[in-house]
Model the fold of this input.
Amino acid sequence: MTKNSLFLPAGTQLLFSGYDKINVAKGVVVMTKYPHLFSPIKIGETTVKNRVFMPPISTNLADKGYITDTLVEHYAARAKGGVGLIVTEVTTVEPVYTYLPGDISICDDSYIPGWEKLASAVHKYGAKILPQLFHPAYMAFPIPGTPRLIAPSNVGPSYAKEAPRSVTIPELKVIIRQFGEAALRVKKAGGDGVEIHAAHAHGLLGGFLTPLYNKRTDEYGGDINGRLKLTLEVIEEVRRVCGKDFIVDVRISGDEYSDGGLNLNDGIYIAKQLEKAGADMLHVSGGTTIKRGSAIPAPGTRQGSHAALSMEIKKHVSIPVATVGRITEPWIADELIANQKADICMMGRANLCDPDFCTKAQEGREDEIRPCIGCLRCLNGIMFGKRVACTVNPSFELENEDTLKPAEVKKDILVIGGGPAGMEAAFVAKKRGHHVVLCEQGDALGGQMRIASVPIAKQDLAKVIKYMSKKLQAENVEVRLNCKVDKEMLETEFSGYEVIVSCGAAPIAPAAFTEFKHWATADDILAGNAFPGRRIVIIGGGSVGCETADYLAPLIHDLYSRDREVTVIEMTDSIMAAESGPGRSLLVQRMMKKGIQIICGAKVEKVEKDKLYYSQKGKSFCLDEFDSLILAMGYRPDTAFTEMLKELGITYHVIGDAEQVGTAKDAIHAGYDTAVKL
Done:
C-alpha cells in the first residue's frame, strides 16, 4: 500500500480535493494526482503504462559499444522508479564511426546479449525500451584511425577540422540496410522498438533533412522531399524487417530556429510523411547543434520549451506526439498533455536527477523529488569520455542516498556551515546513524547557493536549498542558525566531536582596488547588501562577473537616459573561459544584446577614487566616467578555522569551497563523499 492509499469498503463513493482520478479495486483507493500523465497510451501495437518517457541522454557507461552492468543498473533504476518508456542514448548502427567514447553500438550480433540483459532488466518493472539508432556521420568523434567524415554535402559544423566528404548513393544503400539490421537485432534481444534520430541537423539523417547541411542536387537533395527521402527509406527498411508489432519512433526538429533551416511548416509536412511511411510515434524537439542553446535547454529555459511545435504538429497527424525540452515538474507535464500540446512528455534530466521521479509524483510526494536545476553538468566532459553525473544527485547508481550503509562506529559529528556541502554531509552522516549537529552562523541555510540563485536563469538553485533543508528536517538533523562556533564551544559543548568544516570562501577584494569611491563585491550586490549606480565597471569576467553584469544590465538597452551602462574587464582572452555549453552561450548572447561592453586581455593596473587604469596589448587606458566598481575576482578559502582545529588537536575534514573553490556539484559531491566514509 502506498502513502496515498487507504482501505475502504468496496463501492464507497468519495471525493478528494486536489486529486483528479481515483481508482477503486478490492476496497483499496489509489489516488492519482496527475491523471493525464499517468494514464496508459498505445504506441503502434504496444501499450505503455504511462506518458512519462525518458529521452536519450548520453551516459558514457558503455564499454567500446557493449552494454555494461553499470548501464543496465542505470536504466533499470529509472524503470523501477516508474518511467513508462526509455529511449536509450545514441546507439550506432555501423562500426566505422564513433559518436562518443562510451556510447552504445549494435552494429553486429555480438552486441545482442548485452541488449537482452538490458531489455530484461527494464521489462522487470513494466517499462518499455528503445535504442536511439544513429549514424554520427560528420558528428563522429575523430578518434585515431577514423576515416574522413561523411556528410550529405561537403558542409560541416563550424568546429570541424576539415570539410567532410559527400556520401555516395551506393554508401547510402548500405547505411539503410545497416539501420534495418540494427533494428532487427534489437527485436531479437527483446527490445520494444527503436527511435530513429533525424533531428537537430545532427548525424546523417538530421543532416540530410536540414537545408543548412544538405546542398545535394540528386534524388536525396534539392527540395524537402529529396532531403526527406533517406529517412523515409530507413523507416521502410526497419518496418520491412521488424514487422508492425515493433515500435518505430522518429525524433525530429519541428523548427530549427535558424535562418535558412527547417521551420514549423517544414516540420508539419515532415511529420505527415513520416506517419504515411509507417512511424508509430513522433518525438518532436527543436533547434540544432549548430545554434548553441537551441536544442539542449540551458538553465532558466522555460519548461516545455518545444511544446508549441508538438502542439501544432499534433493537429496534423493521428499517431502519438511527444514533446521535450526542460520538463522537470509533474504539474507542467500533466498540463501539457491535458491541454493537447502533446500526448507524451519526454522527461530526461528530471529522471536522471531523481530515478524515483515518477513514483514520487504519482503518489503526491512532489516535495520529495530531487530538483533538476538544468545546469547541464550531467553532460560536462561527455565528449572527453567522462561518465554522466549530476550536480544535485551525488549518489548516482546502486550506492545512493537510499541505500546508505549504517556506520560501523557511531560518532558525534559537528558540521560547521550550512551551504550545500555542509547540508549534504550532515544529511548523509545522520542517515548513517551518527549524531549530527549543523551550525550555520547566518539566519538561513543555503550558503553561497542563496547568492548564486539570484542572477537571471539561476532561480532553480533555490529549489535545491528548499529540497536539502527538507531532507535535514525529515532526518531530524539538529540545525542551529545564527550560531557561530568558537574555540570555547569546541572545548566544551562539542568536546569529542569530529568536525566537518564547510564554511565556504570569501570574495577576493584586493586593498588596492578598494580605493574607489563606491565599490562592492559581486556577492554584496547579489545579496542586496549594496546597490550600484548607473555607470558600472566589473573587474572579472568569469561566471560570477558575467552573471552579475547580466543581472544589472537593463533587459533592453535602448539608450534611455536612466539605463545602466555595464563594462566587464577580464584579464584572459575570453570571458567565462572555464565554462562551456549552451548556458555559457546564451549568457554571452544576452550580454551582447544588452549592450554590455566586454574588454578582454586587459590587466587592471591601478584604481583611484574616481578612476581605473588598465593595460591591453601594450597600451594604457583610463576609465573615469563611471560611478560603481564591482569586484568579481574569485574567492579564497578562509583557513582561520582549520588552524584553530589543528591547534586543539580535533579530528576534522574540510569540504566544499572551504577546501577548494568550485561548483555546486563539487560542493555537494564533497559533502556526500566525506560523510559516506565516516
Notes: Residues 1-29 have pLDDT under 50 and may be disordered. The chain is about 30% helix and 20% strand.
